[in-house]
């Protein structure tokens, strides 16, 4: 009896393998006591290796694991983005009380697990693989959100995310079932074939598409499925929020793109208007909701909803230019958001205001090294010239007009106008306000109010360790991200070429 | 040379971060001087019938079709020179008396100058929009951080006006228009490409205009941006508060130059690229222009704040410029170009003189001023020359510009010319009212009349000398602008006429 | 103002060179009159009211002489420059005939009035009983007083510079004498450059500017011109005579007239109520428009645009944020509602 072992493309799977191995290693090593820097360094090494392997495989275009995964630049782009995000988040999480609560090994392992899930979902070409990856990326995040175990908001956010996330995942799964029923295949290409012709307009299929759209819209914070975002972002420990804000969005959008462009390509005319409507609603809700926020994390949550709306425009037009714009914007968005979050983390620990806007008031004078990245990040999120945000919006609007969705481009512009009010409010607080002199109510690590009795509640154990505030690594990462934002705002071509290559590799699958 | 002109201010402003705060201003002033030298060199070497000169054309973002393209022609030539002159004056004035956080302040000055020059020099539509949006950011910081609270008008139940909200209002209001323009600009390029490769070069877009339907809505977006910038009636709502809180040296630059970018945008971008829409909406814009003239003048002579008098007068003057451009005749547009430069040269020294008035009187309320000329003959003389130029007294270059504008409008749309001519009389009223209230009449208690200092007087003197020089030789601008202006107008349905040169 | 009227009439009817000739002569005699008046005012310590003046002929002979010379020229007395220039315009109007005769008749009436008023000043100031200031000056003492603002009567602040405490009269300043002499010469003799039938210097000088004109070379015959000049001269003398009668022979006559026709006097003194008319028709409406624009339009319409937009967005923001109740069940509800909407849309599509 001869046994034909399936061909395993180790080279192609190397990023995934590296992540998995790294995850296990970090988890195991974390069981022992080490100096504070060891585990973060290991985690960063793991993601660095993964990124290196991803770059090594950058030009490949083939199926892996019997067609369940697709190795192409489009998926690897997500790998690179998430690895970069994870590296910076690890830096932000050094000395984070939540990491200490969760046990460093577990914290970083969960982070790596989420990165693994994101890498897989972006490469998934099969409904089952897609769902597995979706869960793999979500579940560690549920735990990470709740990792500051003694802080009530953190627990609340984790629980909320779990419940709503489950609803979302369930919806996606049901939708997948309907898609399978309507098309007869779980492979994306197979689904595309199955939906060609009249099949695509079948009621069951369309309901399935609606359900999938709902579930994925939830994941990417598209309104009206956005309501978990402000609460979860605000409650979770800030490095985890940062990770969710950038990496989850990038991964989910790229996965959404692959699913809709490849699998649901034939039914494009049906879902394009629907997604366009969702994009406009997100832009409106996100920008309007952010206006009155005092909490920076909540503000960034709402801003993320609006930015998700902008990015959805890249998928709606279903052209190569649209996908290029999407990938570019995802990368640029990662950099600008990480710059902002780094400053938020730093100020959270230094000032007594937590993540309130008052914590960044007046830092233009007192902490210019933090003020500049924050300002650049805010200006970039607003899409003002000289920043990569402007280039990204330019790209998206051009793709919209090119794809006959000019009104969507105008919607992006109108959303930007509204967003100026809250982004500039932060900038005004940084440069134009004096430092707050009054001492607010005492607050523990990221919490507000008394600690719950069930979690123990020991003030000594909860105190922020001395020297946590002026960590040069955090300042350094903020500066690097800020500088990159300006660099790509002035000379965007390298990043655009990178994005074009990534998007181009997907459309070769489609056509 | 044009690259040095464009980037020197920003480069020197960034370099100033390495110097101590006391001399940061002077470092940036050196940068301004370099730019001025380049501008003068370009003016001297300019060939009036040579079209676009000193072109720079480099590939920048090929995927989006955006190229890095700069050039100067008859229209932008003197606006560039105006920018460098006024900026140098403003920078030196500020450097004499540096505010707090000087390095940041002068960084904003340098960034702003580069952005404005970029807007005048850009030949790629997206590059133009980029600089147009960029130039507002430094002014947001300048007005918001170094602005002062203004007591407002208690007799009209208006509370004090704080810098941050006023500046935010200005920024968002202006950007509403500018962002619509961005969408319109992108749409122009993509629709013109019609499936081929996207190209945003202004000349190329003008050579092959879009269909009327597209032109109409894109024109509206561009008009929104430029009308809000100038500002024109009725979208001037941001102006009163912003003008009352802004630091006066920065306001001199803002009022003198930035408002012109809006008018320039009409002439450079809208008229050649959207000729059908221009003809279609000509009367609408003429109504807006005339309304700006009348409303601005009427408001100017009822204000008691010197800043607002100058602000509303700028609105009226920009109304004249818009009138000239939308007469769609070469003489009208020539007058508009001349008056753009004139007004910039006039309002900048007036704002700087307002600094001196406020210093002596304690506030910008003209009811509290009076008799400041008694021991300040030099100041009074400089102020008077600028005031007479503001009201376009015959003998000043402003008069010639207004004459050309009204002549052009008279020939094409006579009714508008008649109504606009009322504005001339109103201009005399508000300009002289300001001068009289500040300089003449009895001196109230607590006011001290003091002569202007030597260095400040030299700066003012330089600007006033430019006004006088231009009054003696307006042909300097008119000769060089004529060809380019005719080129811009050739696409619109009105035939350009020969301009009688004096 | 009235002489400008003659010039404009001249230019309007085609008497180009005549009109400009009158401009030239008018410059001489009007400037002379102003300077003489300034000298008198100086003697009066800056008071300008002619009711307070009189009899300066002995105290200020030079000023009086130049004043009278200027008045003669203004009145177009025969052989003065004003006679030639003014009457040549009226000749031209007569030459053109038809409706233009109105200008001739009106011009002559005006000339009569001009002669009268120019010698009103001349006689009242120069002749008559010397007033106190004149008597002082005859003694050699120039009257001093606190400088006052002529319009309001307030005391001037002399620390500032102008007007200073000193004041000049022609008799004492040789610079003034030279200037006034030159002008007096011109006022008397400048008319001889354009004597009808003898020479026409001005006409030839301006020839080049009016090459395209149809009317330039036309004009009355020499005979008609002298007829007109004669009539003009007679009228001038008549006017001076009336002034002589009113102010020298019968000094109270004008005061009597004023008492008899008070309303006419008021109308004339208030400049035909022109100032009031302008104030009512132009100034007040404009200022009212300004106040309305400030109080109503700017506040409610222009700023209202901004306020409305801001309120709209703020309201929407309150709505969005209000929907964030914090309760999972409401989030799930919205999620399901959203899905229902999507599903409905897709159902309708299929």
Sum this structure up briefly.
The complex is a heterotrimer of chains A (511), B (502) and C (350). Chain A has 511 residues and is mainly α.
Outline the structure in words.
Chain A is mainly α. Chain A has one domain (10-438, 470-510). Chain A has 21 helices and 2 strands. Chain A has a two-stranded antiparallel sheet. The model of chain A is unreliable at 441-457 (pLDDT under 50). By secondary structure, chain B is mostly helical. Chain B has one domain. Helix content of chain B is 71%, strand content 3%. Chain B contains 19 helices and 2 strands. Chain B has a two-stranded antiparallel sheet. In chain B, a hairpin with a 4-residue loop joins strand 1 and strand 2. The longest helix of chain B is centred in the C-terminal third of the chain and has 32 residues, at 330-361. Chain B starts with a helix and ends in a 13-residue tail after the last helix. Mean pLDDT of chain B is 89; it is low at 494-502. With 350 residues, chain C is mainly alpha-helical. Chain C has 2 domains: 2-145 and 164-269, no CATH class; 276-349. In chain C, helix 2 (16-43) runs antiparallel to helix 3 (61-74) and helix 2 (16-43) packs antiparallel against helix 7 (174-189). The longest helix of chain C has 49 residues, at 274-322.
